[in-house]
């Protein structure tokens, strides 16, 4: 399980690194003002569909059903279920695309309240009509990724997201300098990347022997069951996206506010993507497999191990974002149209996002404990409570703190979700916390604080390099050195506080024979 965790996490890390380069170049071309806000709105729209129909609700319902057929009835029965699901899903997605394309102007207008007042609406509608086709490809990518993950193939689905950033980099480095049309080129890059991402997972599925013979879409008993399981997840994901849209709509009253949130969110997505997504993908598969095999104790053990590993990796990232947020944002994004003031503002937003990072990682780890048992209703209720918390807090906090308040509301709501998920699993007698768990978490926190204190002190020493250096590569190099030193200090602190020994860490990553 740990090797699969790091396989997904490793490709996600590669994707995030390329994503940093991508966003740095986007910031140079678009800056942190009105045009950056337009791009954020256009790129956000297809991602909403991906999160609602793809990675969240769909996988939560599809993976356990496909996995059960794979274990109990064999590959042919499982693939038959997958073909029928994908055919129906493609029909729904194409319908959503057509409707969204037709009604894009009111959609953009009412999800970005401040755009109509200052000329951002028209270019946002134009770009969104191009990017919206991505929803078809990326949701199908999520479906094929679920098939491959159920067969314990984790590398190709994770690599598919690397392809997105490779396409963007090609556009930013080659096409945009020749055309001088960054918004148009970036929008079409989304479409091209979706086609290539789908080609990657389909190609690997065929190579692995998945039967992809097409069939006509129809609603049978299996599709009804899938729909019943998906419905709570769709409502939950839909509420979460409404939650996100409300925050972004509020931030749109501040020109550059959405861009600040976007760039800060790109940094916090590093631990969320590597740890949270990797943990949820691997845990859902492993817990489902254990439950189908009648090993309830093994399923609880997987959940416990996922919690430990997630906190081991997310807490130091959180502390780093709390102690050097401005240094991170300035070191990576300042330059071109993205000014020092814009970078510092985004740094304060990142600091507000930081406390919520462990919460969203833990939520990704805890949710498979429900989904593997085909319980999607309970997380739905918790997501609604979380979203309502955010909606209640976001506007008052925006009036007080501006875009920083929007990020802070998200962090507070994230912890509400974790508390509800935690006690829900305890009530269902599925938590499986082993002796010494909380003691180990306390030592992880101590090691993170020690690392944070050291990094803060070192940042003061290299401040002239971080804030006074015009050369991006020298500035970024100083930041990289600071991060590397922080990682080394954290590993030393982890071993010194006896969280894990080197032998234990190596043992968790060692390949074990397949049973």
Cα distance, first to last residue?
A: 13 Å
Instruction: State the helical fraction.
Output: over 70%
Which word captures the global form?
globular
Structural category is mainly alpha
Return residue spans where pLDDT drops below 50 for at least 5 consecutive residues: 511-515
Structural descriptors:
single chain, 515 residues, mainly alpha, 2 domains, 21 helices, 83% helix, 0% strand, globular, disordered C terminus
Description:
With 515 residues, the protein is mainly α. It folds into 2 domains: 2-434, no CATH class; 436-515, no CATH class. Helix content is 83%, strand content 0%. It contains 21 helices and no strands. The chain has helices at 2-30, 34-72, 75-102, 104-111, 121-131, 134-150, 155-179, 182-207, 221-251, 257-292, 296-323, 325-333, 340-353, 357-366, 368-371, 377-401, 403-427, 437-461, 463-467, 472-496, 502-509. Helix 2 packs parallel to helix 8. The longest helix is centred in the N-terminal third of the chain and has 39 residues, at 34-72. The two termini are 13 Å apart. Residues 511-515 have low confidence and may be disordered.
């Amino acid at each position: 399980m740990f090797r699969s965790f790091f396989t997904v996490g490793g490709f996600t890390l590669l994707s995030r690194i390329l994503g940093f380069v991508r966003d740095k170049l986007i910031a140079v071309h678009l800056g942190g003002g009105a045009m950056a806000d337009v791009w954020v709105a256009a790129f956000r729209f297809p991602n909403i569909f991906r999160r609602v129909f793809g990675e969240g609700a769909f996988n939560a319902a599809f993976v356990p059903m496909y996995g059960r057929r794979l274990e109990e009835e064999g590959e042919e029965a499982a693939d038959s279920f997958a073909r029928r699901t994908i055919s129906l899903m493609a029909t729904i997605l194409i319908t959503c695309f057509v409707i969204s394309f037709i009604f894009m102007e009111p959609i953009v207008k009412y999800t970005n309240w401040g755009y109509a007042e200052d000329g951002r609406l028209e270019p946002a509608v134009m770009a969104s009509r191009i990017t919206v086709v991505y929803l078809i490809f990326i949701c199908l990518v999520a479906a094929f990724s679920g098939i491959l993950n159920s067969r314990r193939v984790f590398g190709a689905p994770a690599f598919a997201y690397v392809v997105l950033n490779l396409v963007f980099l090609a556009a930013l480095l080659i096409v945009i300098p020749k055309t001088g049309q960054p918004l148009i080129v970036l929008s079409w890059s989304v479409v091209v990347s979706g086609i290539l991402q789908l080609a990657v997972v389909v190609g690997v599925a065929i190579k692995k022997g998945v039967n992809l013979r097409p069939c006509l879409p129809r609603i049978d008993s299996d599709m009804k069951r899938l729909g019943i399981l998906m419905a709570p997840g769709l409502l939950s994901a839909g509420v979460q996206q409404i939650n996100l849209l409300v925050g972004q709509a509020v931030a749109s009253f501040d020109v550059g506010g959405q861009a600040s949130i976007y760039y800060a969110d790109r940094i916090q997505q590093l631990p969320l993507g590597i740890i949270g997504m990797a943990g949820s993908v691997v845990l859902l598969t492993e817990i489902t497999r254990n439950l189908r095999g009648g090993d309830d104790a093994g399923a609880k053990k997987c959940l416990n191990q996922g919690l430990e590993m997630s906190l081991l990796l997310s807490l130091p990232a959180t502390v780093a974002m709390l102690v050097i947020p401005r240094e991170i944002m300035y070191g990576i994004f300042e330059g071109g149209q993205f000014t020092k003031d814009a970078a510092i503002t985004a740094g304060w937003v990142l600091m507000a996002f930081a406390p919520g990072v462990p919460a969203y990682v833990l939520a990704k780890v805890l949710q498979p404990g429900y989904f593997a048992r085909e319980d999607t209703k309970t997380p739905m209720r918790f997501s609604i409570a979380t979203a309502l918390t955010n909606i209640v807090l976001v506007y008052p906090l925006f009036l007080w703190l501006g875009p920083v308040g929007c990020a802070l509301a998200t962090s507070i709501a994230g912890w509400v979700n974790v508390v509800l998920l935690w006690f829900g699993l305890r009530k269902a007698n599925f938590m499986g916390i082993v002796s010494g768990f909380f003691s180990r978490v306390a030592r992880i926190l101590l090691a993170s604080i020690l690392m944070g204190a050291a990094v803060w002190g070192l940042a003061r020493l290299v401040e002239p390099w971080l804030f006074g250096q015009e050369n991006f590569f020298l500035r970024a190099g100083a930041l990289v050195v600071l991060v590397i030193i922080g990682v080394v200090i954290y590993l030393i602190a982890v071993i010194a506080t006896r969280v894990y020994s080197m032998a234990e860490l190596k043992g968790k990553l060692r390949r074990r024979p397949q049973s």
